[in-house]
Every structure is written in structure tokens, then in C-alpha cells.
């Protein structure tokens, strides 16, 4: 019986995926803000692909190029209006590689 290799990290598995970036049409938008809300701050650690970062002014920004479309940030940030979340246009976004 095969067992999972405990040495395999999530980041290593995510690296197997490929992404087709829809340049200039990010499918997730962060509402402009001066100070991030608790929900926005939570996205910095909740996103498994680490798409959210603090910029030099302490504001939360997104670089969704590595987004796996899991919806975690949608659950945390969309009800409060902190983010606007849509799927990428057809043909764009993550291409999952298994194995
Ligand atoms: S959908 Fe998932 S992977 Fe994409 S930005 Fe949100 S939390 Fe990160």
C-alpha cells in the first residue's frame, strides 16, 4: 500500500501546476483601502498559493498568477466587500497537473 511522502511540501505540489495568465484582467480585485480590515489581513496567511501580500504602504495587494481557484479568499473577503471574486475567463487560469 502506498503512503504519502511526508517530505513533500504543498509548495512543491503547487509548482507542478501551470497557469495561463489573462494579462490585465485579474479575476480577483482587492477593494482600494488605506488600512486593511481584519478580513484582508487574514488573506495574507489563508491563501494556500500566497497570492496576497502587503505592499510598502501596508496595504494588501493580490498577484493572482498562481491562484488555484480554491475559493478560500472568496469566503473570507467577499461577504464584507473587501474583494471581488470571479473565475478567470474560459481558457485562462490554473491548469492542474496531478501526480
Ligand atoms: S482563490 Fe484560493 S488560491 Fe486563489 S487567491 Fe483566493 S485563496 Fe488564493
Descriptive report:
The strands form 3 sheets. Strands 1-6 form a two-stranded antiparallel ribbon. 15% of the residues are buried. The mean pLDDT is 92. 20% of the residues lie in helices and 18% in strands. The protein is an alpha+beta fold and 99 residues long. The protein has 3 helices and 6 strands. The radius of gyration is 15 Å and the shape is globular. Keywords: Electron transport, Iron, Iron-sulfur, Metal-binding, Nitrogen fixation, Transport. It comes from Xanthobacter tagetidis. Residues 45-94 form the ETF-QO/FixX C-terminal domain. It holds the Pfam family Fer4_ETF_QO.
Strand order of the largest sheet: 1-6
DSSP helix fraction: 10-25%
Q: Report the CATH topology name of the domain at 26-89.
A: Alpha-Beta Plaits
CA radius of gyration: 15 Å
Task: Compute the average pLDDT.
Answer: 92
Task: Give the second-level CATH assignment, the architecture of the domain at 26-89.
Answer: 2-Layer Sandwich
Task: Give a concise summary.
With 99 residues, the protein is α+β, with helices and mostly antiparallel strands. 20% of the residues lie in helices and 18% in strands.
Strand-helix topology:
Blueprint: H1 10-14, E1 18-20, E2 28-30, H2 38-46, E3 52-54, E4 60-62, H3 72-77, E5 83-85, E6 93-95
Antiparallel strand pairs: 1-6, 2-5, 3-4
Residues 28, 47-49, 51, 64, 67-73 line the site of iron/sulfur cluster.
Keywords summarizing the entry:
99 residues, two-stranded antiparallel sheet, 3 helices, 20% helix, binds iron/sulfur cluster
Amino acid at each position: 500500500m502506498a503512503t504519502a511522502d511526508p517530505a513533500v511540501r504543498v509548495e512543491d505540489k503547487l509548482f507542478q501546476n501551470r497557469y495561463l495568465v489573462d494579462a490585465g484582467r485579474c479575476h480577483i480585485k482587492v477593494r482600494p483601502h488605506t488600512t486593511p480590515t481584519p478580513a484582508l489581513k487574514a488573506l495574507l496567511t489563508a491563501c494556500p498559493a500566497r497570492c496576497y501580500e502587503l505592499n510598502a504602504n501596508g496595504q494588501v495587494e493580490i498577484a493572482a498568477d498562481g491562484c488555484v481557484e480554491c475559493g478560500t479568499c472568496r469566503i473570507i473577503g467577499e461577504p464584507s466587500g473587501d474583494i471581488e471574486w470571479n473565475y478567470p475567463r474560459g481558457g485562462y487560469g490554473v491548469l492542474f497537473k496531478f501526480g
